[in-house]
Design a protein that fits this description.
By secondary structure, the chain is α/β, with parallel strands linked by helices. The protein is built from 9 helices and 8 strands.
Length: 266
């Protein structure tokens, strides 16, 4: 199991998680990488949310606020992290996508990799509702959702060495210098991601902001648990992304997209 709250494994996980959380909590500054927004769901989205969220969704941090949304998912706050095998109903490689937005890439990549289980994290309820609606229409069964901050999900839900891949596509670049501290992919977060990846696991990042690309490259290359993926190297997950509306808009604006791939060392 990747996550468990039963018996001996629960006791082992509590000890390991407490150590890992303490290790990273004192280093990771609680500066959020997302912007506050208010959003409401359509009646159709709310119906799907009420029907599917209790089965497919959970929160990164129990008791966490709803980041400005009215209503929200207060009725479905977890007491403990979910067990991925029980959650998906099988044992399979798990990929975490941080900041899935409306889930366009999430859904498309899950459809072409039915043997991979995907956990998609997003702060904004409307984006998750759109992804839930797409899951409902398509019948895709290998996606689960987490609402909240990606660092919380990494710290509180996943054990060391439990992930086959982590995807971070087009994180907010926070372009002003005084806001760079709010960028998600800082040294401590990269170290946490590397810790959660199994040997051979993949960190796949993409950005259309040149300055952020340079920072991510520098930080990723400095992490001792990671090495750059080699061209044409066989990888355990697909790194072929669909082109989203956001990416098309960025390319039309003349912004080159940088893909960054690392592999967890043994």
């Amino acid at each position: 199991m990747f996550m468990s709250d039963h018996g001996q494994m629960h006791a082992q996980r509590q000890g390991a998680s407490a150590t890992a959380e303490a290790q990273f909590a004192h280093r990771y500054p609680r500066v959020t990488s997302f912007r506050s927004r208010r959003s409401t769901l359509t009646d159709a989205q709310q119906e799907v949310w009420d029907r599917l969220w209790p089965q497919l969704g959970t929160l990164a941090r129990a008791g966490e606020g709803d980041h400005g949304d009215a209503g929200g998912d207060r009725a479905h706050r977890p007491a403990d992290p979910p067990d991925t095998e029980a959650w998906f109903g099988r044992r399979a490689p798990v990929v975490l996508e941080i900041g899935c937005g409306t889930g366009t890439s999430t859904l498309a990549m899950a459809q072409v990799e039915p043997d991979i289980d995907v956990v998609a994290v997003e702060v904004y309820r409307r984006g998750l509702a759109q992804l839930l609606s797409a899951i409902d229409r398509s019948g895709v069964g290998n996606i689960r959702l987490v609402r909240g901050d990606g660092v919380d999900a990494l710290e509180r839900i996943f054990d060391a060495g439990s992930l086959t891949g982590v995807r971070v596509f087009f994180p907010d670049p926070w372009p002003k210098s005084r806001h760079h501290k709010r960028r998600l992919l800082q040294p401590d977060t990269i170290a946490l991601i590397a810790d959660r990846l199994r040997p051979g696991g993949v960190l796949h990042a993409a950005t259309d902001h040149a300055g952020y690309a340079a920072q991510i490259a520098e930080v990723g290359d400095a992490e001792p648990l990671l090495r750059r993926a080699q061209p044409d190297e066989p990888l355990p997950i697909s790194v072929a992304r669909p082109t989203t509306k956001y990416e098309t808009k960025a390319r039309h604006a003349g912004n080159a997209v940088t893909e960054l791939l690392w592999v967890r060392r043994p």
